Amino acid sequence: MGPLSPEQLVPSLHTVRYWRHKEQFLMDTDTHNTWMMFAVESGSFRYDIDGETGTAERGDLVFCPPFIPFRREIIKPLTFFVFTFTLPIAQVDGRAAADVQDAWTQEKTRSGCPSGKVTIRDVQRLASDFDYLRAVWEQEEEEAGDRKQYLLRDIWRLYGWETEAVRRFASVREDPLMERAERLIRERAHEPFSMQELAGELSLSPVQLTRRFTAAYGKTPGAYGAALRLNKARALLVETDWTLDDIARRCGYDNGFYFSRAFSSKMGMPPSRYRDANRL
């Protein structure tokens, strides 16, 4: 049973508050029975959450699990949002779970739930979420509540993408042979080659290659190469007038018929319709 992923842990908003240029917290330590997230727009503060210490500033999200003391001290006047939320989940790894608070308190090391700081690199998207939140955070109408819930989940998606990027980067650093494998797949994705040949070139069995590559990149080598072929085919459909057979040959598909079937399976529409819908 592996850690829970952010996709499994969709947050349900309880409250959101907003402060401008706050110079001091009323309490330097408190504990809540829900999850908390501080989303920093400007300024900075120190935090200590379950033994993790650090400094948070613009673009940082700081998560505190339920029932865990949250110690903090403002360094520079702080403009920030505070969210409280729950992470209910109906089924985890084939077993029932009442909620993720229980998962945290019982299995802290494998829960995968957030704790401490995550830095968001897509600061423009985060700033856009902040702009919309400032307009609705005080409103109590149902429509405003839906918007606040949507914006929390969008910020949650950013958190998920950042943690996945960090995980993959760490996995690749730990396994430089898979970095070579990724480079070879990228170089050969648009021409015929077999994963068995690639495994042999790396002195691995196909099973070892699949296991290690999936751990590093989150996809099997075959799926990774297929995604590269599909991305190139999508671009050629929109940017050229080439026939499906021409595109198939340039992207590593056997023929136009096979390409059309593979494309429709992944995209939910045939290549001709995709081309018509996406040309400018």
Automatic annotation (TrEMBL):
Domain HTH araC/xylS-type: 179-277
Superkingdom in the source lineage: Bacteria
Record keywords, A-Z: Activator, DNA-binding, Transcription, Transcription regulation
Keyword Kinase appears in the UniProt entry: no
Molecular functions per Gene Ontology: DNA-binding transcription factor activity; sequence-specific DNA binding
Pfam families associated with the record: HTH_18
Keyword Transmembrane helix on entry: no
PROSITE patterns according to UniProt: HTH_ARAC_FAMILY_1, HTH_ARAC_FAMILY_2
SMART domains with a match to the protein in the record: HTH_ARAC
Descriptive protein name: Helix-turn-helix transcriptional regulator
